[in-house]
């Protein structure tokens, strides 16, 4: 190809980046004419972010003559993928100050780094104000993060607010119920999911089988296991393992039920001895490797945790967004 225009160069960089040829993509990017379009910059930044090279992605982002929503979102998503909450929030704040409004992808990236209920709740409020409340992908993320932060009630509210639910929505709600000790509700959600015509995934069956195991519903678990192939799936090792543990637990219960009172007492006494022996061994090991921590040191550590820059930065960013959107 003798004549190369900007679009041709960008297509070459994009093709190499998509095939994980990041170094070669950068070589072509550097050879491009000075009038690179913003798409080429974004493609190269995305290539670095996907490759985990966030320093290079940030360096390239900082050298851009002009940025757009995709530029900001790509870098923020890269930091979120690598679990770098401080960088996510720092860049999110700069984005807002630059009068660039977040899209669904950006909000999800910020949301998945939220560790506390109050943070998830603040994002939820922003989502409502911006008008993205009915977006399924964002609703799924809210549901999952509320569940992870220990708030089943809010996870349920996030589930109910969604107009369109997909298989991920139902599976996430099942997981939330199961994780918070409501295995029967998880199985009810599974039944409703099937009634609504959603195709369960392998993960869905893992949650359903786990709920059966926790509820002691062996026969129901067997029926669910048998139904996996009906949805074009092959039972995974994890599915077989859960079913196996379920069956073994019932067999163990039957064995114990068949024991005489004297045999059960002897078994309990033996278990108690083993438990005490293990506990003493752990305590001895702990004393050997741990240095004593005084009350003052523990208090200082707690204060340091409560005053981390991340907490403040999160609040600043969301307060700024609330002010901007509220205008």
How would you sum up this structure, described in words?
- Mean pLDDT is 77; it is low at 252-259 and 281-312.
- The chain is mainly alpha-helical.
- The protein is elongated and about 85 Å long.
- α4 (54-62) runs antiparallel to α5, α7 (104-111) packs parallel to α9 and α9 (136-148) runs parallel beside α11.
- It is built from 18 helices and no strands.
- The longest helix has 29 residues, at 261-289.
- The chain starts with 5 loop residues before the first helix and ends with a helix.
Summary keywords:
single chain, 327 residues, mainly alpha, 18 helices, 76% helix
In short:
This protein is mainly alpha-helical and 327 residues long.
General form:
elongated
Kindly estimate the percentage of residues that lie in beta strands according to DSSP: under 5%
Rg (C-alpha, Å): 26 Å
Structural class: mainly alpha
Number of helices: 18
Mean pLDDT: 77
Low-pLDDT residue intervals, each spanning 5 or more residues:
252-259, 281-312
Encode the helix/strand succession as letters: HHHHHHHHHHHHHHHHHH
Draw up the topology in text.
Layout: H1 6-18, H2 22-31, H3 38-50, H4 54-62, H5 69-81, H6 85-97, H7 104-111, H8 117-130, H9 136-148, H10 152-161, H11 167-179, H12 183-195, H13 202-215, H14 218-227, H15 237-258, H16 261-289, H17 295-306, H18 309-326
